[in-house]
Predict the 3D structure of the following.
Amino acid sequence: MGYLLIAAALVLLALRVNLILILMFVAGYAHLVWGAGQLDYFIQDVWSAMDRELVVAVPLFILVGSVMSRGSIAKRLVDVMIAITRPIPGGLAVATILSCAVFSAISGSSIVTMLAVGSVLHPALVANGYSSRFAIGALMAGGTLGIIIPPSIPMIIYGIITETSISALFLAGIGPGLLLTLVFSSYAIVMNHHIPRQRFSIAELANAIYKGIPALMMPIILLGGIYSGYFSPTEAAAVALVYAITIETLFFRELKFSQYFDMTIDAAKLVGALFPLIAIAVSMNLLITEQRIPHEVIGFLTERIDSQTGFILLTNVILLIMGCFMDTASAITIASPLLKPIAEAYGIGSTHLGIIVILNLEIGILTPPLGLNLIVAMTAFKESFGNVCRAALPWVALMILCLLLVSFQPWIAMYLVGG
């Protein structure tokens, strides 16, 4: 029966049937055959998955990213980073990475980060002598920081599915996020040391900070409120949205109230595709646990893998392959419920596993054939798919290096969490 179900699911995937329909078919069949034999329980699980406060944070953060990218918050943040990095070799390239990192600390989205920063800095990079390939690679790689630097929408999805603390995941993402930012910035300096430095201007920096104060305050308010315990991640999303709308509409006056309707519709479409995946994943997670499937998988693996190192390497290989063919939300939906109990059996906590999962899928965003940032960059920067893939290659290598460091040196992620 199980092999028939897997075969049927693979055939449906090959026929390009919608993933949500495939997962609903698999979940419904599993409930009928291995569960209590009633689809009522599946419906109850779906409702239970959506009846959570944390679910509200996802559409709110999506809206926050949309407001900032269409307004001027992104440009003002970029201006500050440019003013700071002017005297550094390859300063504009470093400003690109830092801008992505700061913008990621607000938007929680990879694509929004890449497009918002890229719309400002891609023309500037090319005009200042940086190769187009490097510029595109830097923006694609910098954009991936949106899913590891908190707040992160994929982290929220992982937390909901595995019942892991979102605040702990956010804290655990800071170390790897800083590591990636440092490695990317160092690479940018090494590759562009020949680009003439620009003279540092205190007046320019002061002017950029003055104009960008409202934008710079946003990540401080957002992350400060979460980590001080003043408000939850969901409340942080609401605060960020209200703050972004207020700043863009009343202070910067870049957006009109009529534009928010289109942004809300776009966010609703994305959420409409995302939430069914989360709901079905939670239902399957409950059924998998009830049927003791993880225990059987643990037994199978422990007979063949006798060390934590072997499990980590195997997990990374599996997730890297999944990232090449699946979007982040779908991969988290399928892999996380199975991996969590197995990882815990090997002494790997759910929070550390979450960071490993996110880092792997972050790399998947830059790998063909279905790397989302590759596809978006191809359209946004009007380059061929082959060119954007070649632009991503050195950055993927750097990300794999960071992945291995975080996988085998858990303190990088867990230091702030206290684990």
Observations:
- The chain has two domains: 1-37, 38-414.
